[in-house]
Amino acid sequence: MTGFIEFARACKVIEATPGSLDMTALVAELLEQVTPEELPVVTHFVMGEVFPAWSSEEIGVGAGILYNALAKSAGLSVSDIKELVRETGDIGETAVRALKKVSGGQATFSSFLDSSDELSIIEVFERFKAISKASGKGSQTSKIKNLQYLFNAASPEEVSYIARLAVEELRIGVGEGIVRDAISRAFDVPAEYIERAFMLTNDLGLVASTASTEGRNGVLSLGLRLNRPIRMMLAQVTPSLDAAISDIGIVAVEWKFDGARVQIHKDGDNVTLFSRRLENITDSLPDIVEAVKENVIADRAILDGEAVAIDENGRPRAFQEILKRFRRKYDVQSTARDIPLTLNLFDIIFLNGEELLDLPLVQRRARLAECVRSSDKIRVDTQYLTDDPRKILEIYNDALKAGHEGVMIKNPESAYSPGKRGKNWLKKKPVMETLDLVVIGAQWGYGRRTSFLGSYALACHDPDTGLFLPVGRVATGFSDEQLAELTELFADLIVVESGTEVEIKPEVIFEVAFEEIQKSSNYESGYALRFPRLVNVRADKSIEDVETIGRLEEMYLMQRERN
Ligand code: AMP
Predict the structure, then answer these.
(1) pLDDT tens sequence across 161-209
(2) Choosing from 143, 256, 410, 505, which is the catalytic residue?
(3) Alpha-carbon distance 185 to 202, whole Å?
(4) Cα angle 184, 188, 192; round to 5
(5) Is 256 an active-site residue?
(6) pTM of the model
(7) Is the alpha carbon torsion for 87, 91, 95, 100 positive or negative?
(8) Is-contact 27 188, C-beta < 8 A?
(9) Which residue, judged by its Cα, is nearest atom 5 of ligand 1?
(10) What CATH number does the domain containing 55 carry?
């Protein structure tokens, strides 16, 4: 059994290492060193995750619970802890300082314990699991007690990483890319194999243990599994129809439906639905479950589509309406009656034991059409094959007239690439593109709005470093009701508070409109938005969808050309 101290020490070294190659080597060393049982746990831990992203298990510890547990363990008040957070700006350092105070400045912690009492990696994981299982009345207390146990049993070197892991904010700069390369290096399996297995299983912990025990053949044989979501294939903006045609030739054109993505797993009579964020949303959409059972003529299948909320005339309703359906936990049936949905299927990934990912799109589409009986709830819409820009424009105008967003222009020969945003799926929408940015901070308001968080700090993503780079703030476009809702939503995501400024764990995506992108030295991204305003809170999107710095650069250059 490996001690948690080994993990903590490795984190400390990785944190202080600047280059990603060196970091990869260190992570590889760590993965090689742990036992098979510990390997999946450490793989997730090192990325700051406790459970795989697809799993419905969640640790559910926010700043409130963590501060409480620290206060109790250290015999301090919650405001003392908050004060420490303000001073240090870091939850790990706060934990270390708080607990040092208990022992009068001596770093004693568990040094009173003999080495058999040393915390092991698995023990920490088991405690986190117990924390995640606590629910209902008394769950706060139970979570706090379990955290207290960990803080009391940990040494100063460990405490910082326990605190950071508890809120899933490890911040040692290790993301999926580094872990993928580290697994490849540690167990001598090509990085492409690891990447593919990850896209299909969505679980780097599982990929790492397979690589270690079964090598490259084991990793190659990892495939889709019904009822475990696969990353969705994503689209990128096309600068023009002509560019798309000259790149691809004959293109497959479909309406871009104005709704929300659903991945459907049919396993006999058992239907499971996942959102774009890969959350299990089956219970919220019983009407879709029924429609799939009745109209999908396949015993086992994984399908991809867009659910659209429709009004009495069959036209799509506002995006917020569909989210009301997706998030619903109570009164599901009556909400289903109030906001009916139709499901537009556009892809098939798996059919009766056969993986279809590598089939060309047109062939997948034919297979899809064969196994769906169209009804008013569920359909496979027309896919047009053309290389005539006028025809595409016509389809595009029809889609807009019907109230949808525009068109998708796809490469008819392309495979289904899970988790990829590439040239094989292009989207064309009419308005000035909006940006999907992640909220990384906020400010407590003034006057009438003192109890609301507002003025949200936004960031784009730098895939090379894995960092989120600030691009400015958005403070307009919010109703009072929305501000109240957002304040509640962000309460659990607050990492550090200092005066009226709040740092927020990057998780929530705002779709933001703006007049112009400007170069700016005020923000780390090097860009700023002129007159940003909130269009939508994109609860359906996750941090993988956050616009990259490259995209901002591209939009900036395009805008300069137009002017
Ligand atoms: P965006 O949300 O702007 O990145 O656009 C991509 C999204 O459009 C996908 O994730 C789907 O939710 C949605 N969509 C609507 N119609 C289609 C379609 N025919 N093919 C693929 N995606 C579609």
Answers:
(1) 999 999 998 989 898 999 999 999 999 999 999 999 998 998 999 999 9
(2) 256
(3) 20
(4) 45
(5) yes
(6) 0.75
(7) negative
(8) no
(9) 235
(10) 1.10.3260.10
